[in-house]
Amino acid sequence: MGRGKLRIHLGAAPGVGKTYAMLSEAHRRVERGTDCVVAFVEHHDRPRTEVLLHGLEQVPRRELEHRGTVLPEMDLDAVLARRPQVALVDELAHTNVPGSRNAKRWQDVEELLAAGIDVLSTVNIQHLESLGDVVESITGVRQRETVPDEVVRRADQIELVDMAPEALRRRVAHGNVYRPDEVDAALSNYFRLGNLTALRELALLWVADRVDAHLQRYRSEHEVSAIWGSRERIVVGLTGGPEGRTLIRRAARLAEKGAGGEVLAAHVARGDGLTAASPKELAEQRTLVEDLGGTFHHVVGDDVPAALLAFARGANATQIVLGSSRRKAWQYVFGPGVGATVARDSGPDLDVHIVTHEEIAKGRGLPVARGARLGRARTAAGWAVGLAGPALLAVLLSAVDPGFANDMLLFLALTVTAALVGGLWPALASAVAGSLLLNYFYTPPLHTWTVSDPRNIVAIVVFVAVGAAVASVVDLAARRTHQAARLRAESEILSYLAGNVLRGETGLEDLLERVRETFGMESAALLERADDVEPWTCAGRAGRGRPVERPEDADVDVPVGDHMALALTGRVLPAEDRRVLAAFAAQAAVVLDRRRLREEADRARSLAEGNRIRTALLAAVSHDLRTPLAGIKAAVSSLRSEDVDWSPEDTAELLASIEEGADRLDHLVGNLLDMSRLRTGTVTPLIREIDVDEVVPMALVGVPEGSVALDVPETLPMVAADPGLLERAMANVVENAVKYSPPGVPVLVAASALADRVEVRVADRGPGVPDEAKDRIFEPFQRHGDAPRGAGVGLGLAVARGFAEAMGGTLEAEDTPGGGLTMTLTLRAAAECPEPVPAAEPERQFS
Questions:
Q1: Could you write out the DSSP letters of every residue in 174-196?
Q2: Residue 781: left (phi > 0), alpha (psi -120 to 50), or beta?
Q3: Cβ distance 362 to 326 under 8 Å?
Q4: pLDDT tens digits, one per residue of 429-450
Q5: What is the pLDDT of residue 272?
Q6: Measured between alpha carbons, how far is residue 549 from residues 311, 539, 581, 608 in Å?
C-alpha cells in the first residue's frame, strides 16, 4: 500500500473560494467514478458552498465536549474505517478540540495519507508558520493557528485559488463571506485593499518559489544545461574592484523591473592572476548584494569567461551584468577581455549588459599574466616560430652571405624568440631545426650533414645549449607565475572564508554549501563519530546529491582529526585542489565547535541566570521577608505580655500591625512563587473568553479606597485570557502605580478597544521612569530609584509581564502626558467578538 497524495488549495485570504474550488474538484472526480467522501468541510453559512456539499457522501462528525460546550470535529477513525480513495478535509491549520487524538488537523491528514488515502485540503497563506511575523506586520493580527511550511511544501499538488482584492471586497460587501453585521468591520479592518494586495503578493511569491524549486530539481535530474527564461535571474560578475557596487545596484534595478527578479553576484577566483581582488571590497559588496535581497557566490575557475557562463547557465540565469574593462589600451594585446568573451560566447538565450563606471581604463593594479602556463594561443605561436621560422630564415639567408658567425646569431635570436613566445619545447625544436640547417647550408662541407671543422661543432653545441637554457628559464618563469597566481587565488578564497567564519557570519550548512559550490560538487557533508567503533553520523549537509553515510562512500573525503571527515560527491578533485579543501574542512570543524560552544554558553547562561535569581531570592528572604516577620513577632509578643495592660485601641493597633505584616508576607511569597513558576516554565494559562470590566475591579481589592479611578466601559469586546493570571497581573501593576503616585492623586485605570486588541492602561502621576530604565524595571529583583527596602523585593512588574506574555499579551511602560508613568497591558480580543473580524476562517484556540 502506497502513501496517499495531498492536494492543497491555497488562498491569500478568507473568502477567495478555496472550499468552493475543493468541492468542485470533488464533484469532477465523482463524475469520473472516484470514491470521494467529505471528512470535514465547513461551509460557514455560505449558500453557494453549501450547495456543493449536496451529492457528496459525508462522514458523520465526532462531537466532543469542552468546558460545557459540545463541538464537532472530524472523526478520524471513521474515515480510516471507510477507506475512501479521496477524503476532503477543510482548514488544514485547524486546532482540534482537546481530547482528539492529534492536536492539529494537519496531523490527522498525515495519518490519512499514511493509510494510502488521497486528501484534498485548504489553507490560507497567513497560516504558514514561517509567515506569521510578516502577516502580523501587514494586518496587525497574530495567527494562533499555523501549519509547518514543510507540510505544505510536501504536497503533491498546490493549486493557488486567486482573486483580485477589489473583487474580494465586493464579495464581502455583498455578504458572501461574513454576516451582514460583520461586513463593515471586515472591510475597515482586515479586508482593507492594502492588506489584501500584500497577502496576495505573499501567496503568489510563495507558490512561485515552490515552482522554481521544482524546476531546479527537474533541470538537475535531467541535466538540462539550456537556459529557460521562466523568471529574470541576473548574474553580476564581480572582479573585486571598486566598480562592483555600481554593477550590483544596476542589476538590482534590472531585477525590480520583472516580477520575481533575482540577483546573483559571482566572483570567480582563478589561477591565471588576471584579477586583483580585494577581500575587503568583496566583503563589502557581499553585504550590499545581500542587503538588496540577492545572494553572493564564490567560485573557482581558470577560465573566467567559461566559469562565469557555466555558473549563469547552472543557475538558469537570463542576464549577465559586467563592468567595462579597467584594462588600459595596451593591455588588449593580450586578448579581448572577459566582457567581450562572455558576450561572444553567451549565445542567444543569455543577455549580457556591459555597464560603464568611473574606473574604466584606470588599470587593474597588478601586471597581467597569461593563463595556465603560457596559454594555448601563445604556445601555438611558439611552435610556429620554432618550426617555420628556421626554414624561412634559411630561405632569406640563401640570398646573401653574411658569414657563419652572423648566421648562427640570427638562428640563435630566432630560438630565443621561440622560447619567449612558446616556452621550452618550441625553443628546443627551433634549436634543433636551426642547428641542422646551419650544418647543412653553412658549415663546410656544404649540403651535407657532416662537420669538418671542430670549431663549428663547438659552435653548434653552444647554439643548442643556449637555446635550451633560455627556453628552460622562460618555461620556469611561466610555471612560477602560474603557481603564484593559483596560490593567490587560493589565499583570496581562504581569506574570505576565514573572515566570515571568524566573524561568525557563516553557519555550518552555509559553509558546506559554499564548499559544494566552490568545487562544483553535488553534495557536501560533515561526518563525525565518537570513536573508531561507533557509526558515522551527519553533523551537517548541503546539496541534493546522494546521501553519504561513510567517508569511504564519497568521491572525495578529507579527514579532520581522528573522528571527523568532510565528504563530497560529484567528481574526483585534482590533488592541487585538496589543499584548499583541507582548509575548508578545518573551518567546518571550527564552525561546528563554535555552534556547540554557543549552545553550551546558552545553557551556562541559563544556569547563571538561575543562580542569580537564587542569590537574589536569598537576599530577599534574608531582609524583606524578615522585616514583616519581625513586626508580627513583636506585636504578638506584646499582646501576650502579662506585664502590660493594653487598652482596646492599643490592642486593635497591634492586631492591625499583625494583619498588615501577614498581608505583606502573603504578597511577597506569592510573587516569589509566581516568579519561580515563570522561570521553570510551569505557568499554563487556561485561556477563555472573559470581560475585562469583570476582572479589573477584582484586582483593586487590596488598594486603599479612593486611590484608583476606574474607566472600563462595559461595551468592550471580550478578551482571550486566564482570569486568575489577569487579575494577579493587574493587581501588581496597580499596586506599583499606587505606591509611586503622589498622595491625594488617584491612579487612572482605563480600557479601550483597538483593532483586534484590548488595551488596559494604568497611569500614575509619580516621578516617572527614564527611557533607558523602562525595560529594566521589568527584570526580577529590580527597584527603580531610591525605593526603600520595605517597598518589596522588586518582583511585581516582572511577574505581571510574565503573566501577560503567557496569555499572549504584552505589558509595556511609557510616559504619562504631563508627568508620570503609564503601564499598558494589551490583550487579544476573543475570536467570536463581532469587531474586529478574525483574520481567517473561524478558529478555536484551546489550552
A1: TTSSS-HHHHHHHHHTTT-HHHH
A2: left
A3: yes
A4: 887 787 778 777 766 777 776 6
A5: 44
A6: 29, 11, 20, 39
